[in-house]
Amino acid sequence: MSAKVNSSIVLYQGKVFKLVKENITLLNGVTINLDIIRHPGAATIVPLFGNNTALLIKQYRHALGDFIWEIPAGTLN
Predict the structure, then answer these.
(1) Rounded to two decimals, what is the model's pTM?
(2) What does DSSP assign to residue 65?
(3) Strand order in the sheet with 31-38
């Protein structure tokens, strides 16, 4: 069983994701509004080496305004 979607409105459609507002009725009968980001999916890998080290990449992330260390990843496409 799952929640019942009463209504769904796309608030924003971008190249990679969309923002949707849904009104749903939960299994317990409570009705709520949710803001949901719909994404096509992603994949990531953790390259491990024999000497117990892992590979990270230093990536600039505009939302943070800085570089961060992360594992290699991307969308399923």
Answers:
(1) 0.64
(2) T
(3) 4-13, 18-25, 31-38
Is 90 exceeded by the pLDDT of residue 75?
no
Share of the chain above pLDDT 70, in %: 100
Rg over alpha carbons for the chain, rounded to the nearest Å, is 19
What is Dmax (Cα atoms) for the chain? 54
String of DSSP letters for 17-43: -EEEEEEEE-TTS-EEEEEEEE---EE
pLDDT digits (tens, 9 = 90+) for 6-30: 999 999 999 989 999 999 999 999 9
